[in-house]
Amino acid sequence: MEVVFIMTGVCIPSPTRWLLLGLCFAFLKYQADKLMTQFDLKLGKPYDGSKPAVMTMGKAFDEFILEIIDESTIMVCYPLVLLLICPLEPIYQILFLLKLIVAPLYYIPPLLAKASMVGVTYGLLNLPLFMFTTLAAFVLSLIIQFIVLLLIYLNHRCIRATTERPRMGGHEVGMKRFPEQGHVIDINLKTPTHIN
């Protein structure tokens, strides 16, 4: 069974799809472990008071930009995994979706315990550090996904614009819509004129 992406017409053979799924899950695990390590290094194991309990938004963004980038790459990778899971048999879809749902439950509680000790303020808004980094990563991932989809759309439009309109034997074929008859094929016979 092969996956066909409709917009590009790209076929992904089954062994390649399984390889991509394995790489995506390995990448997600690597990014989650890296994120845990970064929070451990910046916040310390227990809250020792070396970091201020409240940070401004600018300082938190500057100090935790790597964590925001790692969270956004995880968020961008999830839709890719879902696209790769869709054509699989239902039992594999259920297993992989369960893995996608349960895996964050292993990583999120320790991150919440570490990052909830530090707050981020902006005016009257006061958020825990983990919520701030998650919201910033979500916005960044939406921007990245929008740019990727826009590039795919523009590429598709450019390819369609450069292809010539189909012709049948030198005659232009067009479609006209008549409400009472549905679609009717209109063949315009244009004879070439020769200048002697």
TrEMBL record:
Keywords from the UniProt entry: Membrane, Transmembrane, Transmembrane helix
Transmembrane segment boundaries: 6-28, 64-85, 129-154
Entry keyword Transmembrane helix: yes
Descriptive protein name: Uncharacterized protein
